[in-house]
Amino acid sequence: MGAGPAGLTAGIYVGREGLKTKILEKGVIGGNANNAPLVANFPGFQSITGIEFLKKTAEQAKMYTNIVEYEEITKIHKTDGKLLLTTNKGEYSAKALIICSGTTYRKLGIKDEGKFIGRGISYCSICDGMFFKGKEVLVVGGGNSAAEHALHLKDLGCNVKIVHRRNTLRAQKYLQDKIHAKGIPIIWNSIVTELKGNNLLKSVVIRNTKTEIDKEVEVAGIYIAVGETPNSELAASMGVDLDELGYITTDKNQRTDIPQVYVAGDVTGGVQQIVVACGEGAVAAVNAYQNLP
Ligand code: NAP
Q1: Which keywords belong to this entry (predicted)?
Q2: CATH architecture, range 5-105+228-290
């Protein structure tokens, strides 16, 4: 379930064991990793775009398994030792399931955010950053995603600034160093409280949380990178155990608390890196194979 790095790797491993497998993906191959401007920490690749990495991984996975895009699992039911999966296209019976459902970008949760999506608000600089070349753009957030968006937008020639609610970034040091080296300004202790415009976003109100002073600034776009929420509702609906943040709990063999149901990738929380997702996918696949009923 899911064709991001974890699901694709699991597909490679399970398929190579000669099992009849299928990767069901509710959207397109790749998941959030499609939005990684540059992957520079996956062993074997000094630097590769997320899209190129996924293209290569998917090509490899297709040698061993089927990948079906736009097929969403809507219900999972366990009966007589088998898993019955209902999707928007049909039904399957499986001996094991590996959940690699990833995460979804969190929204800011302010008025008109939905209205301006694609009209100034974005969550993916890889997808549409080029439209903002030479224009004023803000990135909201202080984590790795915000840092990567800001660096990518700067490279595209945007006039980019980061708005962060605290006075230190949580992004990894190498990203922070690049931000400073490229002279990307950071508006500290600040949050975006209002979005203004008619059809297109024209300006935003930024509030300094220390002084409580509001300032309206004209922008062509803002990129929101305020974290993620795990796609674990379906797993929860079949009784899989979640932690307090909604991530699926697992043991070191990537087993959930339900026999024959495994989990891998960002939906497990922890260190959310492509290399970790791939590793977890491999562990889940090997255990699923070795413990087939
Ligand atoms: P994240 O690490 O959870 O960071 C979210 C950022 O948004 C934090 O700085 C947080 O502020 C801020 N924030 C949260 N809610 C907010 C709100 N309502 N208003 C304003 N700011 C808000 O999320 P992420 O950057 O999307 O990364 C998600 C995971 O993927 C992480 O594990 C990350 O390491 C991983 N990732 C890795 C890479 C890489 O390795 N190159 C790239 C992208 C993502 P505070 O700091 O105050 O909490």
Answers
A1: Disulfide bond, FAD, Flavoprotein, Oxidoreductase, Redox-active center
A2: 3-Layer(bba) Sandwich (3.50)
